[in-house]
Write a structure and sequence with these properties.
This protein has one domain: 3-Layer(aba) Sandwich (Glutaredoxin), CATH 3.40.30. The protein is of the alpha+beta class and 312 residues long. The strands form three sheets. The protein has a ten-stranded mixed sheet with strand order 7-4-3-1-2-9-8-10-11-12. The protein is 21% helix and 29% strand.
Length: 312
């Protein structure tokens, strides 16, 4: 009998390149809620809740913020209303926390305070800055791979980072790369994460480094508002350049520009901490058809081929 691979098994078997597979978001809103009113976390939890019911006006307001991504989070035995705002498109990315007395307080978020020079305010009070946070997609009703791979990673991250710094989350995109997760405040996105990777991810993140072999990309590049295609090409370029130059420290590279050379080719320029300038060419094409989600018909996906163009 022919065995059918899950989408995550297929992606791993094909050794799919991870870098350049995350869509940008300057601002992340993380809302603790099990969504009992909606029957729990469904396959399209955020989209459904944004259409009708209690959360519709709250999500619609948050999603009116340019280049924002709203996610629901949860953890076992927690029934609070924790709320986080992560500002990733900053020279110094930050993440802030508030505990809500009522979800209606989301309507009071002062969106004009979401800037580099201000502390976000909600319900008339300043939000509290926190040092680090990790979220892991475990939304099995969106794709079973998210629960199968994400839940063990969540448990191990709790063991490594502490229960107060780790959350389960609804779909963040790219479940075929499960387990997939984000490390804040920088918004570093990882894929194909296994429980054995948790210790290295936490230790490196706390020291200011990232793991290029699990790196899907980042939430945003400080000072840039790139198209999805340009952002993903830059992430692919960044991963290759970091491996070539051994600049694994997050602050060691800064994106200067991304130039659209033609329909499928990009040139990304980076500066390093020693004053060096590097150009990386990226060709984006489409892969052979593959599952993007378990049970869906296979379809081609963007893939990036990188050539280091110049630099020192």
């Amino acid at each position: 009998m022919e065995m059918t691979l899950t989408c995550a098994e297929e992606s791993r078997a094909a050794e799919e390149k991870l870098a350049g597979t995350f869509k940008p978001a300057d601002t992340f809103f993380l809302i603790e809620c099990s969504l009992s009113e909606y029957g729990g976390w469904g396959g399209e939890a955020v989209k459904i809740a944004a259409k009708s019911g209690e959360f519709a006006p709250y999500l619609q307001r948050l999603q009116s913020v340019p280049r924002a991504k709203a996610l629901f989070i949860r953890r076992p035995q927690s029934e609070a209303r924790n709320f986080y705002v992560a500002l990733t498109n900053q020279r110094r990315p930050r993440i802030y926390h508030a505990e809500l007395s009522d979800y209606a307080e989301l309507l009071t978020l002062e969106t004009d305070s979401l800037t580099a020079d201000a502390r976000p305010r909600i319900a008339g009070r300043d939000m509290r800055e926190v040092g680090e946070l990790y979220i892991v997609c475990t939304n099995g009703r969106h794709d079973p791979c998210c629960a199968a791979y994400g839940t063990p990673v969540f448990k191990e991250l709790v063991a490594q980072a502490g229960a107060d710094r780790v959350w389960q989350t609804t779909h963040i995109g790219g479940h075929r790369m499960a387990a997939t997760m984000i490390a804040f405040p920088q918004g570093i996105v990882y894929g194909h994460v296994d429980p054995g990777d948790a210790e290295a991810i936490v230790a490196n993140h706390r020291a200011g480094y990232l793991l290029t072999h699990k790196y899907r990309g980042c939430g945003a590049y400080a000072g840039h508002q790139l198209s999805v295609e340009a952002h993903q090409a830059a992430c692919a370029a960044e991963a290759a350049l970091r491996e070539r130059t051994r600049n694994y420290r997050i602050e060691d590279l800064r994106l200067d520009s991304v130039v659209d050379l033609d329909a499928n080719n990009w040139r990304a320029r980076f500066s390093d901490a020693d004053g060096g300038v590097h150009s990386v060419d990226v060709n984006t094409s489409m892969s052979a058809p593959r599952q993007t989600s378990c049970g869906d018909a296979p379809k081609p996906m963007p893939r990036h081929e990188v050539a280091l163009f110049s630099g020192k």
